[in-house]
Amino acid sequence: MNRFFTLGCLFAAVGVTAGAFGAHGLKGVLSTDMLAVYETAVRYQMYHSFGLIAVGVLSKLYGEEPRTVIAGWCFVGGIILFSGSLYALTLTDIRWLSAITPIGGVAFILGWAMLGLSFSQSSRKL
Fold it and tell me: Is the Cβ–Cβ distance between 43 and 95 less than 8 Å?
């Protein structure tokens, strides 16, 4: 089983579900500003779900290179910390949760950097 491909698909399914919940269940419940924050959480979750799927496909095609694995775990951590903190903030209005969000953002950045490095400094060619 390719863990990153599977996790990417799982996070994408949850992202679609969260997006539908936000569009249909939270409209009129959340303020316009908080609904925009919720939508940002969904959007970034979806982007990075696709990133995880790419990590899974590349790992299957080229083998698991350590930086590719790090990229995958950074995407997982970023989804949990970035999107998760924004979901929790919008649904609970606990403001200190927004302090966690940038840590998830850094994880996303590191994930993309590691994914790029895993092939740019490798003998493997895409």
Answer: no
